[in-house]
Write a structure and sequence with these properties.
By secondary structure, the protein is mostly helical. The protein is 57% helix and 0% strand.
């Protein structure tokens, strides 16, 4: 849907939710910047995947295949 001039941005902003220190520590340990950047480069080079492709991959992973 294309926004029209009458469309206004929301007038409220959700309140921030603090992240538990243990969750933050886990995220910092498991995040790999190189892996993330490789994924971004792949998306830029290939145009990414369609939603159908993504769903098929998730379903295959759930089946263990």
């Amino acid at each position: 849907m294309t926004p029209t001039p009458d469309d206004q941005p929301p007038t409220w902003v959700p309140a921030p939710v603090p992240v538990h220190p243990d969750l933050l520590a886990w995220a910092k340990q498991t995040f790999d910047m190189g892996e993330y950047l490789d994924g971004v480069r792949e998306i830029r080079a290939t145009g990414g995947k369609t939603l159908d492709q993504f769903i098929a991959e998730v379903e295959a992973a759930a089946r263990g295949s």
